[in-house]
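Researcher: Quick test of sequence recovery. Tokens follow.
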């Protein structure tokens, strides 16, 4: 055994501690239900889980697809493809009303808590987009950094089955990743994780 002086040993242990800190990522997986079709109440619920994740020293907290304000389950159960259905029109209008408008500041509270708690947030939401006259809805996800800024927003490229009755298709603009210490973080929506070329875009 090679003897080490205490200063050298202390320095060595400090380096090991730094390496461990830089190669460990604690993730909180918030598998929760929304307050269905209630954007404000679901937001409050999510903020509580983010606070809890931060208190457990999570570096990153992740919420599922379409959580805010909810997944359109009714389409499959209520004849969503019926032409000119008053029921479907009413449901879609309310869904759009409860959807998230980024330009209106609906994500601002998440940006604030990310910065205050020094935690990265990835969350799935239904996005109402002003560039389509606020008529089209996208199944989107957002990465919010510890600086409280939106890193990127990704819109689901191709909705699955009956999802296409309520969600518009996205594009490749949101196929991005962000650096997080020693890690590179990317995210996709549901079935997109099975698409080889989509995954390859993030790997690149």
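Model:
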């Amino acid at each position: 055994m090679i003897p080490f002086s205490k200063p050298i040993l202390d320095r060595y242990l400090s380096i090991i501690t730094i390496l461990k800190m830089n190669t460990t990522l604690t993730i909180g997986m918030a598998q929760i239900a929304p307050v269905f079709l209630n954007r404000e109440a679901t937001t409050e619920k999510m903020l509580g889980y983010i606070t809890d994740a931060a208190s457990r020293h999570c570096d990153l907290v992740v919420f599922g697809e379409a959580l805010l304000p909810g997944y359109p389950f009714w389409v499959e159960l209520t004849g969503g493809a019926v032409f000119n259905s008053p029921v479907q029109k009413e449901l879609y209008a309310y869904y759009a009303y409860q959807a998230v408008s980024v330009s209106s500041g609906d994500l601002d509270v998440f940006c604030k808590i990310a910065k205050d708690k020094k935690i990265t947030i990835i969350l799935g939401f239904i996005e109402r987009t002003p560039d389509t006259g606020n008529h089209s809805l996208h199944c989107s996800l957002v990465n919010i950094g510890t600086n409280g800024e939106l890193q990127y927003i990704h819109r689901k490229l191709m909705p699955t089955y009956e999802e296409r009755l309520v969600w518009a298709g996205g594009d490749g603009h949101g196929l991005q990743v962000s650096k997080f210490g020693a890690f590179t973080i990317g995210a996709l929506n549901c079935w997109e994780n099975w698409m080889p070329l989509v995954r390859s875009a993030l790997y690149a």
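Residues 27-203 form a domain with the Nitrilase/N-carbamoyl-D-aminoacid amidohydrolase fold (CATH 3.60.110.10).
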